RNA sequence: CGGGGAGUGGCGCAGCCCGGUAGCGCAUUCGCUUUGGGAGCGAAGGGUCGCAGGUUCAAAUCCUGUCUCCCCGACCA
């Protein structure tokens, strides 16, 4: 029997872990800080990947793949970049083991001349490669994405939200002009925003990071920020305008139309399996995971109910016909005809796995020519006619998708405050949490002070909060409010 | 890296103080009865108690060392 899930309001961390476990998404591996993504979790990631990949292709990008290992020297070429990542790199120093009475140990003879770094991100190896690909303005732009795993030696990990190794995509583009690169950066931010909202049903705030939160090596970092149900923010994706930093570091120049030799402009952008963590914490409840229909590996599950073999057959026939109808309409449906579990158990299990819609069919339904429909998001049940059930379900899935977004947006809005003073800020942060808009003087010192005193950080400087005011801490003039929250 | 907690069948735990070489619940397998919200009964299989030393006639239990994981902080997608 599945273990009960800890109440969400009681212990949010435990609740989160329970949901992940009960939904069979992932589990801790024996390797410190790493996770095993189970088939259910992988199917979800694959759907997310497909949605994103289509959007990348639609905006002119192609996929490629670069090596996992990066020569140590590459990492030292961009000063800011090194500083940001040096402290969390896995380093390969040797190439083989040797047997020593029953066990193995590292063969000291095999020490590498130059150590290899397991990529924490691929800017360096990619820009080293781009140097060879770019000579003329005709070679630009280069619009490439890579689906890969990366490793960051994190101190403390949490399933999906922060693991030592994680799956992600990283886009790396090269452009002839600053304007084009900046437009690309914002375009991809918009792709992320659209994906988060339309596929994940997760509302996000877009904006630009402060200098202290900026990606190591970027000129400007843009982000999407989501709010979790416990009132903490999650950085769900980033898009960086890299300026000419990497072009300078890796000497990537092109000859322009005017004959001049110029440095290339760059962007990079990425989202990771962390999105799954965001998805969980945006929609799920005490019964387990809730997945929006667009991303659900299984959108509809049909549960047959019967008392004897005769009923079993008629119900199976009835259920299979519905299954075929749903499949023919492109609905991802399955029939749960396992005989070793009772319906109640299956209901609970499907709910824990977040399947958006359940259809229960029993002898009564066969007789009355109807079905019992249960929505995962609202946990409400209704009886619907068997006739036209395919179209009905298809529409309902669409409704669930938009309802999930609306519910999440409403919750986010209710958890968003605007304050005018630092006292009010601290009060709201302690009593309510969530997103808080407040004026800030734009200095790193004030930002750090607020962080030290309240643990809240500036999640982003949003695009749409222009209004004159004065910093809630120092009273210095401010052109706009910025978005604060405690964050994951 | 600092503070706390924990390592005992697949999972969750008890036993440890006060040594006598393992037990409970769930899961698994088989059988019968069940099936509209996490089924019941009966039987069976499965663990040298994280690892390494030490004390002892005897160690899950006491001592020393060590590794790992989880939680809270600092750092980060």
Mean pLDDT: 93
Helix content: 25-40%
Structural class category? alpha+beta
> How does the major sheet shape up?
12 strands, mixed
Short account of what is shown:
With 488 residues, this protein is an alpha+beta fold. It contains 14 helices and 26 strands.
What does the model show?
- With 488 residues, this protein is of the alpha+beta class.
- The protein contains 14 helices and 26 strands.
- Helices cover 35% and strands 29% of the residues.
- The strands form 6 sheets. Strands 3, 9, 10, 11, 12, 13, 16, 22, 23, 24, 25 and 26 form a 12-stranded mixed sheet that branches. Strands 18-17-19-20-21 form a 5-stranded mixed sheet, sandwiched between helices.
- It is globular.
- The model has no long low-confidence stretch (mean pLDDT 93).
- The chain binds one RNA strand of 77 nucleotides through residues 1-4, 13-14, 17, 28, 30, 32, 84, 87-88, 121, 150, 152, 154-156, 161-162, 166, 168, 215, 234-238, 270-275, 303, 305-308, 311-312, 339, 341-349, 360, 362-365, 372, 488.
Task: List its traits.
488 residues, alpha+beta, twelve-stranded mixed beta sheet, 26 strands, RNA-binding
Question: Could you outline the blueprint of secondary structure elements for this entry?
Answer:
Elements: H1 12-22, E1 26-28, E2 35-37, H2 39-58, E3 62-63, E4 69-71, H3 72-75, H4 79-85, E5 90-94, E6 97-100, E7 103-106, E8 111-118, H5 123-133, E9 142-151, E10 165-175, H6 178-199, E11 205-208, E12 220-227, E13 233-243, H7 245-249, E14 253-255, E15 261-263, E16 265-272, H8 274-283, E17 300-304, H9 309-328, E18 333-335, H10 343-352, E19 357-361, H11 363-368, E20 370-375, E21 381-385, H12 389-414, E22 416-418, H13 422-431, E23 435-439, H14 444-454, E24 457-462, E25 466-470, E26 477-485
Parallel strand pairs: 3-9, 17-18, 17-19, 22-23
Antiparallel strand pairs: 1-2, 4-8, 5-8, 6-7, 9-10, 10-16, 11-12, 11-24, 12-13, 13-16, 14-15, 19-20, 20-21, 23-26, 24-26, 25-26
Helix pairs in contact: 2-6
The protein binds one RNA strand of 77 nucleotides through helix 1, strand 13, strand 16, helix 10 and helix 11.
